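Listing S7. Sequence submitted for prediction.
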Amino acid sequence: MIDVRIHSSRHLETKITYPIPENKEYERDLHYYLFTPAQLHVSSEFISDEAMLRKFQTHARYSSPEITLDELLDRQNQTSPLNVLQQYVDTRMASGQGDVADTIFINELQTFGNSMRHESGVMLAECKAMTAEQRIADLTRMLEAWCHEIAEILSRFRKMLELMRVHYPTGNHIVTAFEWADEAVSLIVENTSLEMYLSLESLFSKIQESAYELLRLSRWELSYRREQKYASVVSRNNKYSSEAVAYRSGVLKKWTQSVLYLTPIQSKAPQRVSNVLAGTAAAIAMTFATLAAIFAEAFFIRNSMQWSLLVIFAYVFKDRIKEGLRLFFSRVVPRLIADQISSFVSPRTGKKLSKAKILIDITKATKVPQKIQDIRRQGSNPFQDMLPIEDVVHYTRYVRIYKTEKSKIVGPWINAMTVITRIRIDDWLKEMDDPSDVMYQAGAADGDFEQQNTERVYHMHLVLEESSKKDNSSVFWHYCVILNKKGIVRLEKISGT
């Protein structure tokens, strides 16, 4: 499943999750087709393949730990971050130093924060779904369980924090990591509880007590952080306090998620292959030019008109031969000759998790596969073929996911990786017309007209295809990206199969 969203006014983001296999590796092919209006000049005449490739930035991380609150609280669950942290703390208390490396200790604190963030997001989505469906009884039980379990989780974790503060009265980076995790989780609980409370506005009369319990929980966490003198509390005496809190919240989120980040490695193979091909093409082209020169020497008088024309002809076609060979190889063996090859490696084990071969091609709408053309026409102008031919950016990722055995000690919750690709579109906005038009609309009274200012927009269509040759399967998604000169206005899903 591919998730497409707006990352910013100048960036489009796609997110896809790949399960990490334990037994057998597998492959997936992912194709991006971006159809842009001809007047934007997103074509090979104006943009090189190398420049276009830089507009696609990809990074990856482990998928967030999917650990429910019940699993976190289960004292028999050996993979629960709460239980693992308790064992680490007990070891420190007993031996003074402990057998667990500080890095592993801190990583488990980050895992706890990520678990809480993921589960909070799930609970918020379920709350909104139940609210929309008026499932009062189920909603009440869920809210009561949420408040009770959150209180117990925070109580157990904060007892460990106090023990660590006693053990390290002058503080150290382990205590600091505990405090950062505590502050991050407090923010998550406060914001989630408040969002759940606000989503229940239409049902206050039916679940008043449960709703107020969420509000009390949210206020308590704010009061707790103020008491602990954490930085994520707005101060009325500082006009930049809100900005500082927003920055602090972002730092805490990045810190907790850093344990999920995967290490990217760029291969130099494409550059080496390109150099070999360039050398081969140059050799073939030079051979042609040399043979032409020998032929001219044998049959024509040196410096004669015929001799000069043949030599000039040979050198004119030398560069064309070189470029033609490069295009030929790229079309015949696209999986062997890639524009970019990258791998993602586990930062803990050093093992390669995936490998991707990337190709970029800027072409015309009439040259893409017929199936893609048909999907592009869905919900579109029936006279599309009469308009100037659209330019298409075709970005391809041939992905191989390697099998990886899960560790019972380090990251037992790891079961998938998420690959995020951001597409930068800011350069394409320069060719757009001014963002506003003046329109007139007839008013209620006769002869009365109303002037309305409206923004001029452009439509960019994104067609995605995920396929597996081994399984002989393909899945397609079609989105329309509405743009104006300021950036992305909105995203509309046309279809998905």
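Caption to Listing S7: primary sequence and predicted structure tokens for the chain studied. The chain has three domains: 2-54+346-496, 69-260, 265-332. The longest helix spans residues 102-133.
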